[in-house]
Amino acid sequence: xxxxxxxxxxxxxxxxxxxxxxxxxxxxxxxxxxxxxxxxxxxxxxxxxxxxxxxxxxxxxxxxxxxxxxxxxxxxxxxxxxxxxxxxxxxxxxxxxxxxxxxxxxxxxxxxxxxxxxxxxxxxxxxxxxxxxxxxxxxxxxxxxxxxxxxxxxxxxxxxxxxxxxxxxxxxxxxxxxxxxxxxxxxxxxxxxxxxxxxxxxxxxxxxxxxxxxxxxxxxxxxxxxxxxxxxxxxxxxxxxxxxxxxxxxxxxxxxxxxxxxxxxxxxxxxxxxxxxxxxxxxxxxxxxxxxxxxxxxxxxxxxxxxxx
Length: 309
What we know:
Elements: E1 2-7, E2 11-16, E3 25-30, H1 32-43, E4 48-53, E5 55-56, H2 61-71, E6 80-81, E7 88-95, E8 98-104, H3 117-126, E9 129-133, H4 134-138, H5 142-157, E10 161-165, H6 176-187, E11 192-193, H7 197-204, H8 209-219, E12 223-226, E13 233-237, E14 240-244, H9 257-270, H10 275-289
Parallel strand pairs: 1-4, 1-9, 2-7, 5-6, 9-10, 10-11, 11-12
Antiparallel strand pairs: 2-3, 7-8, 12-13, 13-14
Domain Carbohydrate kinase PfkB: 4-297
Family: Belongs to the carbohydrate kinase PfkB family.
Keywords: Kinase, Transferase
């Protein structure tokens, strides 16, 4: 059985429930790398094991999160607990389908997820594909960032599929320069990079999706897929540049759109699809997701979605 490992911070998600009144909130679980693991699990065949790696606390919500993962066939073999900390929390507010967030993550146990070198070595050795994001790195101390990036590079050298979504969140970093430096360093260890053009244009100054793809290729990535919201997507593999033209849709809730695309795209690539075929699969999943509220929709609602286009 092949193993897909996603590394990062899982959080309690509070989303507004306008049908029940503006002061009523729904509780769920999400987080960028958890979302991608969720959609990868929904799209990958049964001969793939999907494992999530993080650190949780001993608060009332951490055991519920473990149960949530187990119920949905996402493994927690590489999840540890920290008694002095808790799971992070965020709340989503929506306006015309676009989201804004408020976070409570200062005491998140996930900030210590790279503190066990032996467990990191075990997890990377067991995995065929390894996924992490800029948020994963941003919440860690420098020692933890170095630990993940060095292992990502070694895994790529060993022939494993290494994947990185820069997922820029400047407020989590010490400075914009620090963010750019660490993200660029991580890309050198990633065979596949999955940036989002609007953020990249703002913080790296890219003038087009193609320029964004070329920059990440120069940083060391072999394959770059530049997500572009409602605009055309660029896929760069070696010297081949392809464009997937988008269709305009009005989202109910754009939360998790990029993460769900990642899950669909990666599941397709890991099972033999070409980059363009995988982009179609990822786009189909993302279209389903933005038609629902919250970051995660039921896996049963996704059956066949990636093959329907």
